[in-house]
C-alpha cells in the first residue's frame, strides 16, 4: 500500500453485471446505467452519453466476440462519485488498439455502426482504457464522473 495515493483509489460501491449476447441485452445494460445514474444524481445529458457508450460497447461485444459481460458500477474517487462501465469478452481481441480507436477504422465493414465506435466512446466518457490480447479477449473500462 505504500505507493498508493488517495487519488488513485477507486472504491466500487455497487455493481450490476449484464450478460450480452443480443441487442436487447444492450438495452437492459443501458437501463441499468440509467437507474444507477439516477441513484447518484448524474445529469440527464451525461446519462444519455453513458447509455450511448454502453450501446457501442455492447454492439462491439456482439459483433466481434459473440458474447460478453457489461459491468455497471457506482464508483467513488476523491469523494467524487461516478458510473464505471466495464465491457469484457473472451473474443478474438483487438490486434492494434491505437488503430481501432481511429474514427472510421473498422475490420468488419458489414458490422459498421453509426460511426461512433470506440473513438465515440472515448469522447462520450470522461476516461477510458482498453486492455486487449489477440486471441484472448478484450476489456474496456470507461468512467463518467459527476462534476
Ligand atoms: N470487443 C471487441 N473484440 C474484438 N475486436 C473489437 C472489439 N471492439 C472493437 N473491436 C475492433 O475495433 C474496431 C473498431 O471498433 P469501432 O470503433 O466500434 O468500429 P466498428 O465497430 O464500426 O468497426 C472494430 O472494427 C474491431 O476490429
Ligand atoms: Mg463498433
Keywords:
five-stranded antiparallel β-sheet, 147 residues, 31% strand, Heat Shock Protein 90, globular
Sum up the overall morphology in one term: globular
Q: How large is the radius of gyration? A: 15 Å
Regarding quaternary structure, how should these chains be classified?
single chain
CATH structural fold name? Heat Shock Protein 90
Question: How confident overall, as mean pLDDT?
Answer: 92
Catalogue the unreliable spans: none
The CATH class assignment is Alpha Beta
Describe the 3D structure.
The model has no long low-confidence stretch (mean pLDDT 92). This protein has a five-stranded antiparallel sheet with strand order 1-2-3-5-4, with helices on one face. It has one domain: 2-Layer Sandwich (Heat Shock Protein 90), CATH 3.30.565.10. Helix 2 runs antiparallel to helix 4. It has four helices and five strands; from the N terminus they run βααββααββ. 36% of the residues lie in helices and 31% in strands. It has 147 residues and is of the alpha+beta class. Bound molecules: adenosine-5'-diphosphate (ADP) and magnesium ion. Adenosine-5'-diphosphate (ADP) binds next to helix 2 and helix 4.
Brief synopsis:
With 147 residues, this protein is α+β, with helices and mostly antiparallel strands.
Would you spell out the secondary-structure blueprint of this structure?
Layout: E1 11-20, H1 23-40, H2 44-65, E2 68-77, E3 80-89, H3 97-101, H4 117-124, E4 127-133, E5 137-145
Antiparallel strand pairs: 1-2, 2-3, 3-5, 4-5
Helix pairs in contact: 1-2, 2-4
The structure holds adenosine-5'-diphosphate and magnesium ion.
Adenosine-5'-diphosphate binds at residues 60-61, 64-65, 89, 91-94, 100, 105-108, 111-113, 117-118, 138.
